[in-house]
Amino acid sequence: MVYVVEMDVKIxxxxxxxxxxxxxxREKETSQKWQKSGKWVYLxxxxxxxxxxxxxxxxxxxxxxxxISSLPLFPYMTIKVTSVxxxxxxxxxxxx
Amino acid sequence: MVYVVEMDVKIxxxxxxxxxxxxxxREKETSQKWQKSGKWVYLxxxxxxxxxxxxxxxxxxxxxxxxISSLPLFPYMTIKVTSVxxxxxxxxxxxx
Amino acid sequence: MVYVVEMDVKIxxxxxxxxxxxxxxREKETSQKWQKSGKWVYLxxxxxxxxxxxxxxxxxxxxxxxxISSLPLFPYMTIKVTSVxxxxxxxxxxxx
Amino acid sequence: MVYVVEMDVKIxxxxxxxxxxxxxxREKETSQKWQKSGKWVYLxxxxxxxxxxxxxxxxxxxxxxxxISSLPLFPYMTIKVTSVxxxxxxxxxxxx
Amino acid sequence: MVYVVEMDVKIxxxxxxxxxxxxxxREKETSQKWQKSGKWVYLxxxxxxxxxxxxxxxxxxxxxxxxISSLPLFPYMTIKVTSVxxxxxxxxxxxx
Amino acid sequence: MVYVVEMDVKIxxxxxxxxxxxxxxREKETSQKWQKSGKWVYLxxxxxxxxxxxxxxxxxxxxxxxxISSLPLFPYMTIKVTSVxxxxxxxxxxxx
Amino acid sequence: MVYVVEMDVKIxxxxxxxxxxxxxxREKETSQKWQKSGKWVYLxxxxxxxxxxxxxxxxxxxxxxxxISSLPLFPYMTIKVTSVxxxxxxxxxxxx
Amino acid sequence: MVYVVEMDVKIxxxxxxxxxxxxxxREKETSQKWQKSGKWVYLxxxxxxxxxxxxxxxxxxxxxxxxISSLPLFPYMTIKVTSVxxxxxxxxxxxx
Amino acid sequence: MVYVVEMDVKIxxxxxxxxxxxxxxREKETSQKWQKSGKWVYLxxxxxxxxxxxxxxxxxxxxxxxxISSLPLFPYMTIKVTSVxxxxxxxxxxxx
Amino acid sequence: MVYVVEMDVKIxxxxxxxxxxxxxxREKETSQKWQKSGKWVYLxxxxxxxxxxxxxxxxxxxxxxxxISSLPLFPYMTIKVTSVxxxxxxxxxxxx
Lengths: 96, 96, 96, 96, 96, 96, 96, 96, 96, 96
Prior knowledge:
Strand content of chain A: 25-35%
Number of strands of chain A: 4
Structural class of chain A: alpha+beta
CATH superfamily of chain A: Dimeric alpha+beta barrel
CATH topology of chain A: Alpha-Beta Plaits
Distance between the termini of chain A: 10 Å
Strand order of the largest sheet of chain A: 2-3-1-4
Largest interface: A-B, 30 and 30 residues
Number of helices of chain A: 2
CATH architecture of chain A: 2-Layer Sandwich
CATH class of chain A: Alpha Beta
Helix content of chain A: 25-40%
Order of helices and strands of chain A: EHEEHE
Oligomer: homodecamer
Number of domains of chain A: 1
């Protein structure tokens, strides 16, 4: 099943530059692990914003939540989740 | 360049069932023409809503607008447009 | 997989009382068919509003969309969809 | 009487990891106490978000408030409360 | 149990003056019937708006919904419902 | 003249438990002083939220502001103010 | 007592040009009657919008509501009402 | 003085295609008259939406309102107005 | 030219009482300087909120911005700006 | 391609005056570098707010994001991005 997710990151203003750098590095590592697994299919930067739009292809809502909540910045993001399906007008055989 | 678009359709309440059917049929035809051209890469149904999320890969903002505004229901949709780029953490070589 | 859905109904102001009664009757019939199938587990009225909160237990996002979009008033509702999973603090064995 | 509640948790950015862990542990303990009492019927995780949707079956608004406000993170959550009733189209005998 | 309700009335623009007058008259009759029963305790006009704030003291959420949904303009109102309880700082013995 | 007020309290996350307890105690004292004066007629807890809905019967907007702004947590609340009047459909002789 | 009011006018799309002209003329007549009485102190056009911001100096909330609700377009406006008082930092002796 | 304006057009659903075409043609004529006068400096289409962002350089708020309100579709647009000035960090000598 | 401005003040929670008192004192001084100049015509307190509505009569958008941005609490306020003009239905000769 | 961007700056309340001054100085330097390159065509101050509206003329969404995200205050701004194209009613030959 496929989810489209929009994540807006809000770096806490009281964090030191070291703490920020540490979180950002671990964020990259975690998201790349999931991308390489094939579950996190697309990761796009929203042009001009500290946000991304991602597309995940997962086995279940549980697996989807496991991936998103493993991100170190998860508690500091505003997240919009959309569950999508094949559209009746789509010409593409598969959803992805 | 890639745009992610969310379109919420609001069928006018005063239209006859024939007028609705005509618009819906032409909507399908138009969207499929653009999908076959390779410009409209993904067309997903938002589960449980009369909405879609689409991904378009176009030459320019002009071409993007030409495609979306050619949809017969264009004047009756609420549309959210997001311009996206390659994310620094993306492992995929290309954006699509 | 489980979805929680909130549906706000907005009866079109230009419809005759007959057309409204026809839609409302078919709405009831459709929702009861799905409830009896066991897919539409809970249908609650929001106290004081022309809205409902429902809980559906389905095989896939496709099946979920098939059920919701089969409702006659589907094009005239504002719908909020939430995909839910088992909570780590839940004591109940199963999600439902 | 039945309430559907959506709680969005926002962990304060200035708290130490110890303080966060302490609050999270007491949150779990409190919510499980109420679940075991039978008052807090469902506790679902919103997929992809630090939020839950819960269903409580209580004697009165007072009891409902007593339960929710006993959560240690209560002052740091954004909470949406919906009072629900049996729906006229519901086929299920009881509301829960 | 006590509910505070805010109702914003939106008279449909396509209705004739006769139809509007008929609805408004029946609205008055219905709300006064419930006020006289003692269930609809306060009915206030929001100064400068076509809205009211009301306070109802009812036996159950079912009774509350029965009262509000009996109003002829119910399908054409935007309604905000708040379930309230005795406040720990209240000096008044009873809630009303 | 009568105002209906909704106050959402947001306890600052950086305050010590002592500072919070001190503010909460003075908040109680202040609100009870005004309730006993007869100006602050109702103080209700919103079920499930750190909010209240209050009804004040005052001489003037000046007096109303004097009361609300005397609350120690006033700078940390989100406040919605509604000025209300007697409703033409009200059966009750007086507004309160 | 002084109210600041913002009124956004939404001309119903189904009205004939005659009906619109009639309403607009009566709207002017009504607002000018109240301006000449001294109760409606300022009537400003919001630059670039079909909206106005007005300042009224009235005896009571009842009188304020009587004035605003006498406008023929009252049911078709979105209205924001703000009750204001003398500011402690104001140098002007009187509020108006 | 310079205004940035965003106009979202909402074509009334009940209008005939002739009425729509007539309004659209007069809209074009009016906007071009003002553009040629040098007052309406930029008129941009928002990519993917039935909206425009415009920049006007006018003598006064009165002149600005005269221009925008002369558009035939003015009553059917949602308009956001922003008054702008020279920015202290701007390197450009003049504002336009 | 005339602007109507609504300013919501949000005192930073981490500031000491001395820092708050200092800012509040300088805020008063600055606003009174502009009021005495005749540019800041009205300064009203929003009843029940830490907000004001002000009316300024200035030479240009530049002068308007100079005044508002000179307030010490300017970076900590949420500000809504409305540019207004003489209304065609206004009976008053001048705008102020 | 042209983007219109609105940036609302929110200076973190916990920063020292030195840290703020440092960020503001580097913000100026960065924005002026891009303005001199010809990519950042307009930088306007929103009158009365700590916000700007900017117009950028760039080669690609990537270049646009590179410019905006190079601003030191980028993580502390709320940013609204609009991709614009030539309008069919525009009389100007080029978009800028």
